[in-house]
């Protein structure tokens, strides 16, 4: 006679892959969700935390315009893009000091010309902004 | 790929944003000043590229490297850019590594996931079939009723 209580329990579903991988899966999930959170943050309201605002594709296009350049690494393109952003910040700030001197709150073209004349490192711009 | 003149310009919206963020609130920039800064930025890219390329060529390399760009900054008297640039490069490399790892993980996941997915799909299909059969049964019954009526 069969003892009802010795019935076999229904098999517990085992996830595909060994049991030892469970932790790994959890790490993956938390890593992926952390990454998604980070991406969401960057896209939301932290423009200065974004690594680069200028599009790499346009920077690359300018680099390719140089007939002497064969190839540029992705890091080089990024570096030039980042340097360009720093350049824009610096020249805008310099121009601003001249607008301030003239007691204006609006930076005008002449402030920029002034800034270019006033700094040696901006000499490469002379004659190019016309 | 032919470079059209427009493509040598940097996007106005981005340039404007960078300018605004560098200045205190309430400061405005005229359209002419903005446009001139944008042009200056393009010239900067060309000049930095040429300078960096000189370093690459000196080392007999055909590929511009980040190190060439850093050397160019010093040459161009933009030493103040070197530290923030190095920091940004570190962050960029980390980001690229992270992206690479993420895509590799996705590729690894696809294999076992497919097998699981297939068995689940099979179950769902089986259920669907059952539902359809039930409906068909009902239709047949209804028809029979109609006929009877």
Summarize, please.
The complex is a heterodimer of chains A (130) and B (149). With 130 residues, chain A is mostly helical.
Strands, helices and their partners?
The complex is a heterodimer of chains A (130) and B (149).
Chain A: H1 22-43, H2 56-64, E1 71-72, H3 74-101, E2 106-107, H4 109-118
Helix pairs in contact in A: 2-3, 3-4
Chain B: H1 12-22, E1 28-29, H2 31-58, E2 63-64, H3 66-75, H4 82-148
Helix pairs in contact in B: 1-2, 2-3, 3-4
Describe the structure.
The complex is a heterodimer of chains A (130) and B (149). Chain A is mainly alpha-helical and 130 residues long. Helix content of chain A is 53%, strand content 3%. In chain A, α3 crosses α4 (109-118). The longest helix of chain A is centred in the last third of the chain and has 28 residues, at 74-101. The radius of gyration of chain A is 30 Å and the shape is flat. In chain A, 23% of the residues are buried. In chain B, 19% of the residues are buried. Chain B has 149 residues and is mainly α. Helix content of chain B is 78%, strand content 3%. Chain B has helices spanning 12-22, 31-58, 66-75, 82-148; strands spanning 28-29, 63-64. The model of chain B is unreliable at 126-133 and 145-149 (pLDDT under 50). At the A-B interface, α1, α2, β1, α3 and β2 of A face α1, β1, α2, β2 and α3 of B. β2 (106-107) of chain A pairs parallel with β1 of chain B, so a sheet runs across the interface.
Biggest contact: A-B, 62 and 69 residues
- Indicate the percent of residues in helices of chain A: 40-55%
Instruction: Give me the strand/helix succession of chain A.
Output: HHEHEH
* Helical stretch tally of chain B: 4
How helical, in percent, are the residues of chain B? over 70%
The radius of gyration computed from the alpha-carbon positions of chain B, rounded to a whole number of angstroms, is 31 Å
- Calculate the terminal CA-CA distance of chain A, rounded to whole Å: 103 Å
Average pLDDT for all residues of chain B? 82
Strand content of chain B: under 5%
Structural class by secondary-structure content of chain B: mainly alpha
Spans of chain B with pLDDT under 50 lasting ≥5 residues? 126-133, 145-149
How much beta of chain A, percentage-wise?
under 5%
Output the number of helix runs of chain A: 4
Structural class of chain A: mainly alpha
Oligomer: heterodimer
Q: Unreliable segments of chain A (pLDDT under 50, ≥5 consecutive)?
A: 2-6, 17-21
**Number of strand segments of chain A:** 2
| Strand and helix order of chain B | HEHEHH
Biggest sheet descriptor of chain B: none
Mean pLDDT of chain A comes to 81
């Amino acid at each position: 006679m069969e003892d009802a209580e010795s019935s076999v329990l229904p098999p517990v579903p085992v996830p595909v892959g060994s049991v030892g991988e469970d932790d790994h899966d959890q790490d993956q999930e938390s890593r992926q969700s952390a990454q998604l959170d980070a991406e969401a943050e960057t896209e939301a309201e932290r423009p200065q935390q974004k690594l680069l605002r200028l599009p790499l594709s346009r920077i690359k296009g300018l680099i390719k315009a140089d007939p002497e350049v064969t190839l540029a690494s992705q890091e080089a393109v990024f570096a030039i893009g980042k340097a360009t952003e720093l350049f824009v910040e610096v020249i805008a700030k310099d121009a601003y000091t001249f607008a301030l001197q003239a007691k204006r709150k609006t930076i005008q073209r002449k402030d920029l010309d002034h800034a270019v004349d006033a700094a040696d490192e901006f000499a490469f711009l002379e004659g190019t902004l016309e | 790929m032919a470079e059209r003149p427009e493509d040598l310009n940097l996007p106005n919206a981005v340039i404007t944003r960078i300018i605004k963020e560098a200045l205190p609130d309430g400061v405005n920039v005229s359209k002419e000043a903005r446009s001139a800064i944008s042009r200056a930025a393009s010239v900067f890219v060309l000049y930095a590229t040429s300078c960096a390329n000189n370093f690459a060529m000196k080392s007999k390399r055909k590929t511009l490297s980040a190190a060439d760009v850093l050397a160019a900054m010093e040459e161009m008297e933009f030493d103040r850019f070197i530290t923030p640039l190095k920091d940004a490069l570190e962050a960029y490399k980390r980001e690229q590594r992270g992206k690479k790892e993420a895509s590799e993980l996705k590729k690894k996941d696809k294999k076992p996931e497919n097998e699981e997915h297939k068995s689940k799909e099979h179950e769902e299909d089986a259920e669907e079939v059952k539902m359809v059969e039930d409906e068909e049964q009902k239709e047949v019954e209804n028809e029979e009723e109609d006929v009877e009526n």
